[in-house]
Amino acid sequence: xxxxxxxxxxxxxxxxxxxxxxxxxxxxxxxxxxxxxxxxxxxxxxxxxxxxxxxxxxxxxxxxxxxxxxxxxxxxxxxxxxxxxxxxxxxxxxxxxxxxxxxxxxxxxxxxxxxxxxxxxxxxxxxxxxxxxxxxxxxxxxxxxxxxxxxxxxxxxxxxxxxxxxxxxxxxxxxxxxxxxxxxxxxxxxxxxxxxxxxxxxxxxxxxxxxxxxxxxxxxxxxxxxxxxxxxxxxxxxxxxxxxxxxxxxxxxxxxxxxxxxxxxxxxxxxxxxxxxxxxxxxxxxxxxxxxxxxxxxxxxxxxxxxxxxxxxxxxxxxxxxxxxxxxxxxxxxxxxxxxxxxxxxxxxxxxxxxxxxxxxxxxxxxxxxxxxxxxxxxxxxxxxxxxxxxxxxxxxxxxxxxxxxxxxxxxxxxxxxxxxxxxxxxxxxxxxxxxxxxxxxxxxxxxxxxxxxxxxxxxxxxxxxxxxxxxxxxxxxxxxxxxxxxxxxxxxxxxxxxxxxxxxxxxxxxxxxxxxxxxxxxxxxxxxxxxxxxxxxxxxxxxxxxxxxxxxxxxxxxxxxxxxxxxxxxxxxxxxxxxxxxxxxxxxxxxxxxxxxxxxxxxxxxxxxxxxxxxxxxxxxxxxxxxxxxxxxxxxxxxxxxxxxxxxxxxxxxxxxxxxxxxxxxxxxxxxxxxxxxxxxxxxxxxxxxxxxxxxxxxxxxxxxxxxxxxxxxxxxxxxxxxxxxxxxxxxxxxxxxxxxxxxxxxxxxxxxxxxxxxxxxxxxxxxxxxxxxxxxxxxxxxxxxxxxxxxxxxxxxxxxxxxxxxxxxxxxxxxxxxxxxxxxxxxxxxxxxxxxxxxxxxxxxxxxxxxxxxxxxxxxxxxxxxxxxxxxxxxxxxxxxxxxxxxxxxxxxxxxxxxxxxxxxxxxxxxxxxxxxxxxxxxxxxxxxxxxxxxxxxxxxxxxxxxxxxxxxxxxxxxxxxxxxxxxxxxxxxxxxxxxxxxxxxxxxxxxxxxxxxxxxxxxxxxxxxxxxxxxxxxxxxxxxxxxxxxxxxxxxxxxxxxxxxxxxxxxxxxxxxxxxxxxxxxxxxxxxxxxxxxxxxxxxxxxxxx
Length: 1093
Prior knowledge:
Helix content: 40-55%
Strand content: 5-15%
Oligomer: single chain
Number of helices: 42
Largest sheet: 6 strands, mixed
Distance between the termini: 63 Å
Structural class: alpha/beta
Radius of gyration: 34 Å
Shape: globular
Strand order of the largest sheet: 9-6-10-14-17-18
């Protein structure tokens, strides 16, 4: 991670300091709330001496008054042409109005500088500076010199700027020729501030720090009224950030932003540079979610003022890209940087500023594994910076450091070592030997030396890097964690087992504190990306145990603790966040949540109901808005804490029920520290399992490569998909031999397995596996499924169960055109069925109907869901067991009705479910719509593979007509389910097809309805893994509720029903009984939710 985020160069180059804007006595300056002019291309601007009528002194005063009025009114687009006319008029009346031309040129220069038209501003200031004594006074001439120097800095003409500032300060001093009458503190402060900014641009950070401190001191009491003083404080904060003094940078930049907001208001574009700079601070502090929020706000302010195609957006785009890159979302970061490059190309940014963009693009290419592309961008960045900054500048050194990373990853250790040593040679004089700026180059050098088997120097260099990093960031920052992790890898490389265990033991607590902090910001997808990006540490630790030291109990304890803290982590955090948002009593939370849920509904409608009218751009814009709201929700709820804290192994162990054993599966990639090429150090993915009983240490087993296990999983799932398959027993036995038998050797006499799968194991019905004696595992074990063993701690808390009536949603009228709001329901047996659906049903044997067949194509060419007669009978039978039940059937079984539910004690939904697999081919979204395309295999157009909650859901009343009550469409996606209020709901039963499948995310579970219901607050679920038979499902559900009424636990109740079905020759095929999985709380239902006997 580059020191002080290299984008500060561009931030410096575009921050609206305008240091000379209030120097000239009596000259108007930008006031509070004054927007800037909309930038025009330099070639399109009128010439400085454009002709204009009127040559009298009265006309000069009138025009000056009109200009001042335009500035006060914020009409800068009118002010610049008026200033040009004023210059022309002043030229004609110079004899009658001495000093008018100099005043007019200074006014024009300030306006152009405020507009960041630096070349035109420089021309105006330069002309004013060279006027004769009759046209400009000594004080205004000094202002012109300072203004010109400031413009030249932004044009990266540093030597000329430095000469002007030296001359200005000499004249403002006390020596011979000093203009003591004009040497006001404010004027001298402005000159010193410009010198400080110049020194910062040249990389002389210590000198810049001292100079800006003097400037701020001279401004003194004018700080509250002078924006020049505030700009100097802002620049001083940037220098502190460059020097790595994060605390001081935070304080100064916050101070400057507060003053800008006080003077200009929170929505003024001049607040944006403060937000951008503070975004960089938050990134340095390891708070990427907060960094993203600030950068996004800055971009919003700038786009509101300048539109979406202005070069002045570049710093905000780059800051936002930095945040996304930090979180591992490289595609989104690349999109933002490409947009910044397109804007920059329109106005030809100076070389060093362009170098910052090239540097960021190189870093993204490197992160994406494109070494050749990264090499090209870093070399171009070096050339651009050398052109104006010289080859010893710190920014050039930082680009060499990054290029060293590229060469090390490519296996060119000799070139990498040279680049790191050269970077260190140039960085140390600029920052000093104790600065963090040296740490990344030192660690890169250490890893390179390790690759070259120079282990002693490698360790010594790495320890120095860690010491600098700790001193700079403390123990819980990502960079500190990475430095410790690299020491683990170096210990592995030299075969130091005690060293690797020592550093692993040290890094995990720091990593946990970092993770807790980081996950409090950002949207859900961004939180997932952080953990995905960070998964290598988990893989290495698990592989270190399972592959090299399986007998080491200390390592087993560390590895399982790590798994329990990582798996399902984001799900826990997001569920807690949703719960807090619903319960918080403040004016922001509820409106924010309502807006977020409305946006999610609109996203779902774009996919399923708008006939393909939604464009990719519209979908992306809505998704981005929803993610911004999620990030804002994280910000609102971050201080409350909760489920995002660490989990201790002994706490999980205490929560295991008597007779139970936690089986924590893991998919990991082993790390080979001896491989010569860094890219070859990660092996093929493998499965492993950790078993934890109430007493005793964890035990573990490696289960082999995932490709072999996954092949057997797919074979079994194909066999289970049809009741006529004849190879189901062989498939079940083969998979059991790979994953079941090795685990059973570790569980001892346990009879209740709490299974936390990973990878494709989430889609395995373990009850259907056949042991070595030909017995289904359902005959030997009670099975409960968890996202992670950390669920046990959450489930062990006695949360209050809702006392709201249970709700049954069954037999929706898919063909209904007028859908109710759920206030009344027809008798369940009378659920209406359209003629079209009836003909389909009559042509099909009732028992063969499945609750997940995607909409079929009827004679009229429409896509429709068919009626499910069994769901009406099922709902009727269950209603007789549930006291006070609210029944939603027929037209009342609508999406609008379901969305108004508030914490029912139990929710049962019997309908069609669906899951649409993501597309494998590159997506082309224009004009694609699921109902036109057939929906059978392809994904909808708008949702992409990273939008899995929009590709699974439930069909409700009006689904065939896309009328689900109010503004709803009758298709309840998992994304919308996640927004339901199910806090306190003891059990949700989805009596439908494929409700338990979705996109499988290693370490995070199934992204579909499973996840959505946990986010909504449900404590337990019953869900299906494939398309289930209508009649068999009715039989299973009716019997299941009968067992629940007896007070049997939720998992055991399902097991008893499955055993009875296994004994029935007509239903013994696992297709009929093994599809449903019990997830979450396994205990008996609380009395408030329990069915009647």
